[in-house]
Amino acid sequence: MLGQRWSAVLAIVVAGTWQYAGYIMMIYVAALEGVPAELHEAASIDGANAWEKMRHITIPMVAQAFTITMFLTLLNSFKQFDVNFSLTAGGPSTIFMGKPIYGTELLALNIYNSAFVGNKLAMGQARAVIFFLVLVSIALVQVYINKKKEIEM
Predict the structure, then answer these.
(1) Helices and strands: H and E segment counts in the chain
(2) What pTM did the predictor assign?
(3) Domain limits of the chain?
């Protein structure tokens, strides 16, 4: 499975998902337990069905968990290094114009390879700083958009 480019990418996605699924699930469970039962009771008295309770009570009350988990998942997917390095080390590769093109080399692994394997520390540091700035800007935009959808308690 790790010998072909597309199946190797799929293996990295499955392993990364398996790695963080329990952590993310615990955040959702804690958020769901924080929804007051009185709100569901009042909605039932008012004649709301299960879909309406989910749409108008549960999802808005769990919106903070969506913000947190989207933030963590987005940043961890960009910073994916350990699974990528341990499973494929950026391979499988093909040769293009005399240079290897790695099929599963993500950005964090590319920074590592350029800095430590290629011994270009300045280039690796410059890529890391740009990577940091891109991650901060994406994270701020994502949190800003999700915070507008949350309700304040």
Answers:
(1) 8, 2
(2) 0.73
(3) 5-149
